[in-house]
Amino acid sequence: MIHTTFYDPNITVVRPGVERLTAINAKAFKEDVADLINGGATQLIIDFRDVAFLDSSGLGALVGVLKKIGHRGDLVVSGLNSDVQQMFRICRMDRVFKVYSDVDTAVQTMAETQ
Amino acid sequence: MLAPRLKIIVAEDSELQRLYLCSLINGLGYQAIEAEDGEVALDLVTSTDASIVISDLNMPKLDGIGLTQKIRELDLGYYVHVFMVTGADENETRVEALRAGADDFITKGSSTEMLKARIRTATRLINHAAELAERTRILKEANERIQEDLRAAAAAQRQLLPNLQDDMMGFGIASVFVPSAIVSGDMFGCFALNDTQLGFYAVDVSGHGVHASLLSVSIGHLITPDYVRTHAFDPAGRPDPAAMVATLNKRFSASENDDYFTMFCGVIDTATGHMDYCQAGYPSAFYVDQAGVTSPVGDGGFPVGMISTAFYENKSHHFETGAALIICSDAAAEAGNLLGEPFGDTRVREIAQSFPKIGIDKIPTELVHALNTWRDGAPLEDDLTVVALERKYQ
Q1: Which of B258, B301, B345 sits opposite A64 (nearest CB)?
Q2: What whole-number distance in Å separates Cα of residue B323 and Cα of residue B286?
Q3: Do B207 and A53 touch (CB under 8 A)?
Q4: Is residue A112 assigned to a domain?
Q5: Which of the residues B38, B170, B228, B296 has the least number of beta carbons within 10 Å of its own beta carbon?
Q6: At B295, is the secondary structure helix, strand, or coil?
Q7: Which of A23, A91, A96 sits opposite B300 (nearest CB)?
Q8: Residue A60 and residue B281: Cβ atoms within 8 Å?
């Protein structure tokens, strides 16, 4: 279900491909991203531009993939709408994930810091 | 044990023809049942469990087509195959018979082999239908058992919830608990810790349904007044709800899965109105004074069981006499209407704000009512909990 775009050097942008990342599809999302990580992706940007809503299961899956990548690489998020931002703030996820306003800024920053 | 012989009703007014067909059918290993006209045949269809009827076209009282129509009108719970005996060239009659609900034809004077083959085809279909019916019955039975178990689990879960009918230590408490499935991933509690202190908590396990409810129930069993007395106070005896949350985080971060929960808990000194609380990913509560001035309580905190190294903070708030604290799970603000627009924090806050007007007891049901209207009667997709506390007197 996820859409992936690759940028040099070795940056993978993931769009969840759903409008609502919830209990219904969180597991599939996590498995898809885990496959990318198992396939060697180390610099990941999860772009939420087209995601309107993220529930607690969606957040759990996102933290799950962050834990999976661990020290092997980096996983950042971009394009959070105001509702998702609010959820990130209440759960302190803004202290766990690097959050970028849009995917271009995320790609640029990630490329520069490698 | 031998399978019972399949019953076949032979509807034929000519005795000779009837006897001939019956002996053929009996010879094939089936049990033929004689009917001298359509009416007798119809009675036999309802009184025996025959699932094949071989019917002549022209019979007194009720002809073959009439009999077929009547059979199709019956509600037997299984399908009856109808063979019509016709002449080889009676095409129009055959169309009429098919429209009436006949399945196949036996041509007058056709060979025994043909009759045998046709009955065998019907038998295959009957056996197949019986297998399907049996499978459906087993699934239905299993489903009923699961539903029954779930209802028992839901009842057990509700028994864990406090009975908040009466005031507690000068506090009026009202609540609602609305599972999105039969069981819920939410849990809450409110209890006296000693003569002056009141403890409370609300928990929302990520996800919902059976999986989440297993964790929420285990949390409900874990967080007893004793547990709070032991874990939510520092060595000097001062309230330290963050310490309890940190203990829970340590305990629940151990598992490898993505399960976690959010929590809002606190200790209120009922004599002074001082409240120490810890917010762990649960939505901020609303504090409403007697004038209806509403402010959020808490600005966030890490969920529990998600990150083992998370740290938790104590915050405090003064609870004036006559003021209320409304704690509400994220199911309220996240509830979408038909257009997918969420109910939002602002609307939850507006309902909290109505506390001085409608009173503490009506706040939870008012919110449920508003959500129901917002969703046009559609059930919530997430478990809802509302706990409202009012400091009535010192």
Answers
A1: B258
A2: 11
A3: no
A4: no
A5: B296
A6: strand
A7: A91
A8: no
> Interface pTM (ipTM) of the complex?
0.92
User: Does any CB of chain A come closer than 8 Å to the CB of residue B300?
Assistant: yes
- B310 at A interface, C-beta within 8 A: yes
Q: Residue A51 falls within a domain, yes or no?
A: yes
Residue ranges making up the domain that contains A84: 3-105
Q: What's the rounded Cα separation, in Å, for the pair B223 and B229?
A: 10
CB contact under 8 A, A92 and B281: yes
Q: Given CB atoms, is B260 within the 8 Å cutoff of chain A?
A: yes
Instruction: List Cα–Cα distances, B91 to B57, B58, B86, B87, B122, in angstroms.
Output: 13, 15, 9, 9, 22
Q: Considering Cα of A24, then B365, then B272, then B189, what sign does the dihedral take?
A: negative
What's the gap in Å between the CA of B300 and the closest CA on chain A? Answer: 4
Q: Which domains does chain B have, with CATH numbers?
A: 7-134 (3.40.50.2300), 161-391 (3.60.40.10)
Whether A114 maps to a domain, the answer reads: no
Which CATH number fits the domain that encloses residue A28? Answer: 3.30.750.24
What local confidence, expressed as pLDDT, does residue B239 receive? 97
> Residues B25, B8: contact at Cβ < 8 Å?
yes
d(CA B32, CA B41): 12
Task: Name which of B184, B203, B206, B311 to mutate to probe chain A: the one with the most chain A Cβ atoms within 10 A of its Cβ.
Answer: B206
Name the phi and psi angles at B358, rounded to 5: -100, -15
Q: Which residue of B has its CA nearest to A89?
A: B300
d(CA B184, CA B191): 21
> Which chain A residues are closer than 8 Å to B345 by Cβ?
86
Residue A110 lies in a domain: no
Domain count, chain A: 1
Chain B nearest C-alpha distance from A8 (Å):
31
pLDDT tens for chain B, 394 residues long, are 456 788 999 999 989 989 999 998 998 889 999 999 999 999 999 999 899 999 999 888 999 999 999 999 998 888 899 999 988 778 888 899 999 999 998 888 778 888 888 888 988 988 898 899 899 999 999 999 999 999 999 998 888 888 776 789 999 999 999 998 888 999 999 999 999 999 999 999 998 788 889 999 999 999 999 999 999 999 999 999 999 999 999 999 987 778 899 999 999 999 999 999 999 999 999 999 999 999 999 999 999 999 999 999 999 999 999 999 999 999 999 999 998 899 999 999 999 999 999 999 999 999 999 999 999 999 998 999 999 999 997 6
